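Hi D.,

Good news: the full-assembly prediction came through. Inputs first.
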Amino acid sequence: MNLFGTTVEMLRQGTIFASKRHELLAQNVANADTPGFRARDLAFAQELTIAQRATALPAESVGVPTLDPRLVDSPDASLRADGNTVDIDRQMARLAQNTGYQHAVVQLLSARFRALRSAISGQG
Amino acid sequence: MPSDSIGVSASALAANRTRLNVIAENLANANTTRTAAGGPYRRRIATMESEAPAFSALLTGQDQPRGVRVGAIVEAGATRRAFVPGHPDADTEGYVEMPDINPIAEMTDLMTATRAYEANVSAIQAAKSMATKALEIGR
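Then the structure:
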């Protein structure tokens, strides 16, 4: 019997994913004017959704799916002559989205720990 | 680690600040006819390049955050002949070799570099916000 269940493990992976993705997005923004630089991103959230849809079961009963964040080239439509594929507007939007995602995951994680604590202390 | 991404963004801040310095130099020297190297000032361009990954990262095949830096500051500008008779540097026909600097081009470059700088500041703020939020876990 796992004390924390699979929820905490999944949320933990979510926070790791968010920080790794932020690294890549920061790289893309930093190299927005570097000739020949190819923008990259992490694919993970989409695959998690697909995995859940395929099983159509609550995550609790199927166990933690092996989440393998994968590096993908994110070729935003670019007509730049220098071969750079960074679309600064999309990158900034993704950055904001990723921050919101991380905040949400941390909020859920905190809620989970709060629930656990109230169960341990036996008082709501 | 968010600190790695802050380092990447900081490298971009430094690179863009150098770019801004070079643009300011071009604007300031739009009418300079004498330089230490002799002849008129020539327009300079800062070229950007990705920082090479660390050697250890190449050995292990790991991907490391790549920052950016100014690769070189190259003299790329031409000169133009302006008719200014009586100028101390004028030739016998009254023409002076002047730097060929287009203020409009310089100003657009200036805005591009400024916006790039701001985008990287936003990226650092996002990293800080994520780190602060993570400290709230279990509170």
